[in-house]
Amino acid sequence: MVGAAQGSRRTVTRSVDRRWLVTGAGGMLGTDLLAVLADRDVTGLTRADLDVTDAAATLAAVEGVDVVVNASAYTRVDDAESDEPAAYAVNALGARNLAAATATHGAMLVQLSTDYVFDGTATSPYRESEPVHPVSAYGRTKAEGERLAREADPTGTRIVRTAWLYGQHGGNFAKTMLRLAAERDTVEVVTDQVGQPTWTMDLARQIVRMIDVDAPAGIYHGTSAGQASWFDFARAVFELGGNDPDRVKPTESARFVRPAPRPSYSVLGHDAWLEAGVEPQRDWRDALAAAFSTGALEAQ
Q: Which member of 88, 116, 126, 138 is catalytic?
């Protein structure tokens, strides 16, 4: 009987009438999600409002909700190497708690994940069906979050893996490059890490679109089209910010030793969107130009 009720709840509610809950609402993506959903019935809960590691509190927060977007996460990648239990509590157990709550209440869950679930050794875009192989503590905890969420609510969970996020709210690589452009004559940026710079506003719109069209449960890659190295990304930021891109100088990641290994190749494929009838996100260059044109990267 519970399963039947869940199925009915998930398919009958009209998309425009759905009640949304965004956890991690104070972050870069969460803030943009609230903006995209401003004309909907949406509740945003910050980390201070809801501790997703508290199963009882999470269950209560999801009651009466149709869609939950879990943008809460432990994202201190290097710190996770020495404090994996803390990362696991938020990234894995928090995801499980939310999925258990959506299963109980018949809601849908969008669980945000990351390119770090892969080892970065590929030479062509990672498919959504590719086996995960994380090589960092952060990646392991996010991969476990995916597994536990799908295990707790297999018919209601949509995993959206993203990477290289930048946006208006909070610190990010694009803003750092603009700050360094004002402070230094030149800046060195690595050429041997490749991925997909992704504007959080584009990702927020994509997530809302996937729910509005009732895209099926499963795994999706929420990154911009195309690919770039951090060096390419930095040059584009300099240029769009009115600075000489030749002030960005190439270097290699071996010069920047960090506790957590970074994937050298983080390009994700987008077949699942097409199979669901949803257009993938636009090219990263177009998105970056739009972010600049809307003032999203201006100093706050």
A: 138
